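Case study.
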Amino acid sequence: MSEDGFLSKVLGKANLNRRSFLKWSAAIGGSNVLVGGIPEGFKHAVPLAYAEEKGRWIPASCWSDCGSKGFNKAYVVNGLPVRQGTDDTIKDKPNRPQLRACAKGRSQRNHLLSASRLKYPMKRKHWEPGGGNKELRGKDEWVRISWDEALDLMAKEMLRIKEKHGNKAFLCVRPGEPTERLMSEFGGYVNGWGEHSGGTYSAAWHMGWGIPFSELENDRLDLENTELFVLWASNPAWSRLGMPMYDMSRYKKNGAKVIVVDPYYSATAQAVADEWIPCRPATDTAMLLGMAYVLINEDDPQNDPLIDWDFLNKYTVGFDKDHMPKGADPKDNFMDYVLGTYDGQPKTPQWASEICGTPPEQIRYLARRIATTNKVSFRMSPAPARVHNADSLPQVVMTLGAMTGHMGKRGEMFGHDWGHSFLAEGYPLLTGGWMLTPTSYVNGKKFENPLASGFKGYFGAFWRTDRFEDEDVWLINYNELWHALNVGEYTAGKNKKRKVDVKMIYHVYNNKMNQFPGTMECIDVHRKVDFVVTQNLFLNPTAQYSDLVLPVQSHWERYGYVRMGYRNQLLWTSQVMKPYFESQSDSWISREVGKRLGLDPDEIIHCSFKQNVFDHVANCKVIKDDASGYEPLVTITNQDMKEFGFEGKPQKGRISVKEFKEKGIYHIERKKGDQFEHIPYKAFIDNPEKNPRNTPSGKFEIHCQSYADYITGCGWDEKSPLAEYVPPLEGYESTFKDWKNKIKGEYPLQQYDLHVLRRVHSTLDNTPWLQEAFLQSFWMNPIDAEKRGILDRDTILIRSKYGKVLRNVTITQLIMPGVVAIGQGAWVNIDEETGIDRGGCSNVLHGSVSTGQGHMGLNSCNVQIEKWKGEPLKYDHQLPPLVPIKEA
Amino acid sequence: MGFQDWPLMIFSLLAQLATGSFVVLGIVRFSTNQKERETDYYRLLDRGWIGSFVIMVIALIVSLIHLGSPLNAPLTILNIGSAWLSREILFGLLFAFFAGLFTLFQWQRIGSRKLRDTCFVLGGLAGIALVYSMSMIYRYVETQPSWNTPWTTVMFFLTAGLLGNLAVAAVVSTNFLSSGDKTKTQDPWYRKVLRGTSIAALVFIGLDVLVYLLYILGLFYGVPAAQETAKLILGSFGILFSLRILFVLVGSMLGGLFLIRLLGNQNQKNLLVSMAYSAFAFVLAAEGISRFLFYSVKVRIGI
Amino acid sequence: MAKQLAFYFDASTCIDCKTCQIACKDKNNNPLGLNYRRVVNYGAGSWIPDAVHKELFIPTNFFAYNVSSACMHCEEPICVEVCPTGAMHKRDDGIVLVDDSKCVGCRLCQQACPYGAPQYNEAKGVMTKCDLCADLLEIGQETACVASCPQRALEVGELADLRKKYGSINAIEPLPKAIYTKPSIVITPHPRSQYSGKGTGKILNPMEV
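After joint prediction, the assembly is written out as follows.
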């Protein structure tokens, strides 16, 4: 129920009489409402139009870059999915739960069968070789062209650019394998590097604590032992919807207590928190240091033991001056830093409180509660680490874990809940598919990008500064990417800049204009280069600013897709529908472009997609019953190969090809404390000499020289081997122009990005069902709103140093005063007249800036907000879908 | 909330106007003596009957507009067992039938006086039952606190009586002046009718305002949803609320002036007619606003 | 033969993820604006300056929880009572259904129902509502919403059995009191749930409901 102005309501509803009359006259003319003819019971099983038809259920992929994984299936009638469903292959129970899908996955048919999907290749009307009128990118008209024309002109332009400028003129950022292979064969391309999701955790943990991805957290059944959960900025209700949130609710029901630390009274806090402690974004390091101070200051081994000194001495180096790593300055110890022995600033709760906004008494309470409770699981999401200059954050987190000894034991952990399902809980019990198995496109030959050799793939570029020393390695950090391309040079290490001049940007499998910081500068860059090509399902923002747009097929339109679920599920989804109009697969496009570039297409993609899928299937492995290794999961016979039409060797496994394809999912059942129990670093804790950490000292390095060297080597900031609090760029302190007297500056509010249920990053943003279910909100506290005369649902203007955004505001008590938040991933929609974004894209507010280890700093942003005096903004679901070319 | 229920608004106003004017005309008819019945002017009352009947028929047609599937309309009488809406449709049809029948008899001089009287009484009863059923539809809905009050029935009947009297006064005053004969303007029967209807109208206006204010006050002391409704009416829709009261007062002023001029034996014909029709128009507008607020500005209990 | 089929809802575990809403919408192929099942987020809280550190604001009296509601298939359904044609009717197994062929689209049921269950389908000109996936129940499957919930917050069953299992609470804010229509639902309240009529909060997501 809403209160709109009377006049707008009167004028708005004036249409109804016309509609009613039309309906009435249609009724007189002959009703088209289907009445009778369909048995009462089955009226709603499938839409009326298909009720007479028979269909079948097909496992359907949900492929978005989500923090979760669910199993979807589609009911297909006459080649069209008319309904969706989820996992009902097994009876649901905690030890082997159904992998239920969420609202996003279940909206996919609404998403994929959309008027705004790309149907044909399109060229920008005013493009010419060399760019044509580049200013029109983003506002030009689109002209439909044939595939031949598209591929020919693309190859022609690519050859021209290569001849004139060389391969360093091509930019492809994480384009996915088919394109990687194409561009590598073509001679190479400039790529990006950096950490998207994990913030500063990846390098910190790898280097300081020797923690691989498979050792981030305890398994889900072990966490049933936990007594107290501290969820720090962790909101599984939104970011890990599905099994992880279901587990959290189970733990709560079984008697665990939950404390949530978050600037927002999140959905998770609402559901399960016994206590909620607000803490300003970008200030978590300070609060944690304050907590460490409490423990150090008040610890009394006799009467009030708060610190597990045994743990520290046995398993760590760098905590105090008596336990330093070889070659380190004894003054550089954590304890003295926290006590302020040498810098004169003790990191007391009072000191921390001034920064983080949490009362000192609460900081002290939380520290002591964690220290004195038996089984504590401290789970921080990577969000606080996606803050500028937050390099020390993971160090403090782990140090606290070591101080309290809540590591490597049953029901205890100190760490973060990594996003992706296949990295959750520990080493996988089932492997296969996209992420962790080698590509089956390899035909015996390893491909490498000649301009990044030795740094293959997503993980290849991590934690290595030698990339800067090699003159043939061209990798630009994601955060400064657009700025670097704008000014023509990027940071290639400490005190080192390298000139770069990109002429063509080839966007595949991404929406980087929307999702990398610095969208405004990105638009400028896109209006500078000669040629921009985008391959995508929709005319997303990146595609809108391109010259050539190529329509691709989704996983619903390809033969299949093998993908890991969580630790104990493996999914094999299949083709649901025919390719949408003229859309093609990325592999086909790579081959065709390759041909026209004079390359051998078989060197690029050597086998059919279908064969590729079966290669993956054959390669699926399941853990042996005694946990000693892996063995094949799928039984393949010669009969299968003949029937399905693929090549390979017969093998014995646990499920037949037929059954796996039909069901689409394989589960492993577990029992608490069974042989697959996973407790991170338990082996190290049990026997540190026999199982040292993969660090220079063999222990957890609270003082970590290699980490410091790495960050300093990246070239943006100097880092000490210790955890130190550094006021971040666009943090809390920067909202003041006079910190001492607390006088606010030009951008007095802190803004941060939330992952919302409306979409997965920027995917699914244009899905009507989801737009209706979840508003693209901008959250603001009433105290801040009142000061500015802003009422609920007003249109407001949000300004940062880098850009401006319009939104309809949701005034809510649920967020801390002084803090505002937006759901990240909304598609940018620049109003060309004013330069203001009407879509709500958070990266318009962020600048193309790198700090520390080149991680994303998306939760550090300062803004000012005022009421918008112009035309009010319409809600997204009130706007028509974005259709590239209107057809008659 | 909004204007989407305008067919219902129009239907309820027209139906109440039709029944009100029918009953008022009936009272006029019954209070006429034999001598008065023989005049020409008396026959002009017939126009009133036709008007009443036609307005009711229009009302019924308009009510079909708010239906999503009007072809099923004949089924709406089926649930008289429990649904006031069914009963309303039934009485509406009965009223239209008897009013139409009576109009026909009266116009064509068919049937004895007794027959016509019976027909009229049946129609009148059907009309009263109609207004009562209309109010009960809404009173029955416990989950709409701005409907679920005895004041709803009172307000509906007041509307009927108010619009009926003003309509009759306006129509009769026209008749009064359509005659060129000056002496006829002094005709006691017409003066009696106009006096009676305008006094009655003024009384109804007074009650109308009083009852409406008591109704709003009642909302303020009701459940949270009722209080929210009251706040909306006085707040976001405050202008409409004020206009509603204002129009009624203007109507009463005009009615009062009309009465004074009439009593004062004045003969400014055009002015009197204008006053009569303006009074009717203002009060109709006020009732229209009141009905709009009733249908559209409401907060239901629950979600 | 069932006597009164009903939903069970666990408010202590619902997180307003709207999977139930989407699953229902998908199954019934409903257009935009029509959602048989909706999720409401209800709560309150305020920020008070700390007594000692006056520049800090402390969250006070915060609570929030969710209610997922479709149709209550009430024991005394007011929608059935006000329907002029009898299109709205209650079956022997307790399910309240609309008979398309009789419905005249007067929308009085929509005005009366305190749960927002009957909704008008403009394209069809008739009322539509949750029918407890009668067709799926008939073939031994669960309703779309129950099968979809990632939090396992929903169940369907015989009202008497559900009451035995979970108790008999059937009205928490912002749902109306049970006396109006006697809803057939069993609710496990959230630890901070407020009973209907004793609410101190408000609906926090009105635009999404």
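Observations recorded in class. Confidence is low (pLDDT under 50) at residues 1-52, 435-441 of chain A. DSSP finds 30 helices and 38 strands in chain A. We will return to this complex in the next lecture.
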